[in-house]
Amino acid sequence: MNxxxxxxxxxxxxxxxxxILLLGLCVMISSASAAGGSGTTGDPYIIENxxxxxxxxxxxxxxxxxxxxxxxxxxxxxxxxxxxxPFLGDIDGKGYTISDLVIGSSSGSNYGLFGAAxxxxxxxxxxMDDCSITGVNSSVGxxxxxxVMSSSVHDTMLIEDISIQNCDMNVSLTGDIRGSFVIGYIxxxxxxxxxxxVINNCDFLSASGNIVGGLVGSVNTNSTLNMISxxxxxxxxxxxxxxxxxxxxxxxxxxxxGSNANIDDxxxxxxxxxxxxxxxxxxxxxxxxxxxxxxxTIVSASCIKGTGYVAGILGGIV
Length: 318
Description:
The chain contains two helices and 34 strands.
């Protein structure tokens, strides 16, 4: 009987040690992914370095906050989220800066800090400084390449209190680039809110690319864009057709399936906006089968050039 009790105690001890080791391993894995937190709305993951920022790809639906400035010098960046698995979570930058992001590719699409974001995502309150994207094909933005929705059910995606400064995009390939400093492409059935987004001292150069804007490249069918209190200063935007200081193109196959762009209290100041072809404007380059509203928006001391359909606020409606 005593021998059996001793044996049972040994087994229980082994089980206890195993559980402790397993718990320790789980803590180590969690610590390797974030500096703290559990990823919930009340206890978000804390991101303090480049590795932890990249590891957001391991959980695209969690809640995150930045706990430090993050420098990406020398990091071969894999954009967070893609068109199949977009970022659906929430990140609050707490006013910190993400700097020196570099993305270079000879082909492909959906490039930026976030490759793709979708339903309910919120990206808030941080600065992007001294970042660059070169050589890519389409749907590119320093912040987000593309916004995608998983179904035809509208859901809001929020971008708020974001500053992008001293950044360069040199997209030399031809075709529908659909690019901007913030979001390259807003796909169908997306409702996107922009609040207090500032661009300063940035260049977007695309020798022959179409659909380029300062804040959004293209807004596609059945989508809504609400843009409030956004500013672009001391920046250059150059492309071919459908070039806008704020938005390159707002598009719908027909008026019934068109998009809705509402812009209020925005400024474009000391900028150069150039299209080698037509539909060039300080506000929206081209509105196609869609509805738009632009109020309290000022284009001042800016240079706007193109060969046809050139204007301060709206390049053309077709």
